[in-house]
C-alpha cells in the first residue's frame, strides 16, 4: 500500500457466501479501498500466498480449502499480511483457534459492515508506519527484535511468534522498565478501546510463554504488575492490581 493520504488499500476478500461478499465489497469500496473477491479456498490460498494485498478478510468455512488451513499455510511460509477472520463459528474455542493460527482479529457472523471496515482500518494502521533505516532493531538485554523481518531472537536463537505475539513483544520492548497496564497493552496492540470482559490478551499469552520471554527485560515492579494480570492464577491476586 502506498503511504500518504492518497494511499489505497488493496483488500483480498475470501468469502464463499455471495451476500456477505457483496456487503464486504460494497462497504470497502465505498471507503475507497480496492477489493478482490475470491469465492473458494483453493483460489483464495493462491492469491493470499502471492503476498500482494494490504489486508485480508478470511471466511473460516470455505469450499475446497478451509480458512484455517489457508491461514496456517500463510504464516508457515512467512506471509504476514494482516488477516481478519469472519466466521459463523462464534464459540470461544473457535475464536481462540483462529487467533492462535495467526489471525490478527476475529469477527463473528452476522456482522455489521461498518464494524468490519473499522477493524480492517485498525489492522492497516498497524502496518503503515515503516521503521526508519536507522532504527530497524530493538535490543533489550538478551532480546532482539528485527523490525524489518519481524523476527525475534533471544540469546541469538529465534523465537517463533504469531503476529499478535510479535506486537505484544514489540510494545513491551519499546516500553521496557516501565509499568505497562492491561489497558495500555490492549489499546496499543489491538488498536481499540479496552473491554474489561475480553480475554484477547490471555489468548495470545500461550502458556505464559510470552511472559517468560520478556521477564528478563522488565523491572521487578513491572514484572510483578504484568504477572498480576496475565498469570493464570493472578486474577485472584488483588494486592498486585
- Rg: 18 Å
For the largest sheet, list the strands in their spatial order.
Answer: 2-1-3-4-5
CATH architecture descriptor text of the largest domain? 3-Layer(aba) Sandwich
Describe the main β-sheet briefly. Answer: 5 strands, parallel
Number of domains: 2
Query: What is the highest CATH level, the class of the largest domain?
Result: Alpha Beta
Class per helix and strand makeup: alpha/beta
Number of strands: 9
Could you tell me how far the N terminus lies from the C terminus, measured between alpha carbons in angstroms? Answer: 41 Å
Beta-strand percentage? 15-25%
Taken from the alpha-carbon principal axes, the silhouette is globular
CATH-assigned fold name of the largest domain: Rossmann fold
Task: Briefly say what this structure is.
The chain has 241 residues and is α/β, with parallel strands linked by helices.
How would you describe what is shown here?
This protein is of the alpha/beta class. Helices cover 41% and strands 16% of the residues. The protein folds into 2 domains: 10-128, Rossmann fold (3-Layer(aba) Sandwich); 137-240, Winged helix-like DNA-binding domain superfamily/Winged helix DNA-binding domain (Arc Repressor Mutant, subunit A, Orthogonal Bundle), CATH 1.10.10. The protein has helices spanning 18-30, 41-49, 67-76, 92-100, 113-128, 163-174, 182-190, 200-203, 209-214, 220-230; strands at 10-14, 34-38, 55-59, 83-87, 105-108, 137-140, 143-146, 151-154, 157-159. Helix 1 (18-30) packs across helix 5 and helix 2 (41-49) packs parallel to helix 3 (67-76). The chain is globular. It starts with 9 loop residues before the first strand and ends in an 11-residue tail after the last helix. The model is unreliable at 1-6, 130-134, 204-213 and 215-241 (pLDDT under 50). Pfam families: Response_reg, Trans_reg_C. Residues 135-233 form the OmpR/PhoB-type domain.
Amino acid at each position: 500500500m502506498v503511504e500518504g493520504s492518497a494511499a489505497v488499500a488493496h483488500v483480498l476478500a475470501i468469502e464463499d457466501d455471495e451476500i456477505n461478499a457483496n456487503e464486504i465489497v460494497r462497504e470497502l469500496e465505498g471507503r475507497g479501498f480496492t477489493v478482490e473477491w475470491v469465492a473458494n479456498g483453493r483460489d483464495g490460498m493462491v492469491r493470499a500466498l502471492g503476498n500482494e494485498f494490504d489486508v485480508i478478510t478470511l471466511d473460516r468455512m470455505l469450499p475446497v480449502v478451509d480458512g484455517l488451513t489457508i491461514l496456517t499455510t500463510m504464516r508457515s511460509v512467512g506471509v504476514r499480511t494482516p488477516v481478519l477472520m469472519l466466521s459463523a463459528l462464534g464459540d470461544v474455542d473457535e475464536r481462540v483457534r483462529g487467533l492462535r493460527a495467526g489471525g490478527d482479529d476475529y469477527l463473528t457472523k452476522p456482522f455489521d459492515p461498518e464494524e468490519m471496515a473499522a477493524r480492517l482500518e485498525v489492522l492497516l494502521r498497524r502496518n503503515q508506519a515503516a521503521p526508519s533505516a536507522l532504527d530497524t532493531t530493538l535490543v533489550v538485554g538478551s532480546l532482539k527484535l528485527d523490525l524489518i523481518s519481524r523476527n525475534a531472537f533471544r540469546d541469538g536463537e529465534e523465537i517463533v511468534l504469531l503476529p499478535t505475539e510479535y506486537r505484544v513483544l514489540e510494545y513491551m520492548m519499546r516500553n521496557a522498565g516501565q509499568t505497562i497496564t492491561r489497558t495500555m497493552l490492549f489499546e496499543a496492540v489491538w488498536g481499540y478501546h479496552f473491554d474489561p470482559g475480553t480475554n484477547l490478551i490471555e489468548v495470545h499469552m500461550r502458556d505464559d510463554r510470552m511472559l517468560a520471554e520478556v521477564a528478563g527485560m522488565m523491572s521487578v515492579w513491572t514484572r510483578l504488575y504484568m504477572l498480576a494480570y496475565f498469570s493464570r492464577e493472578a486474577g485472584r491476586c488483588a494486592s498486585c492490581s
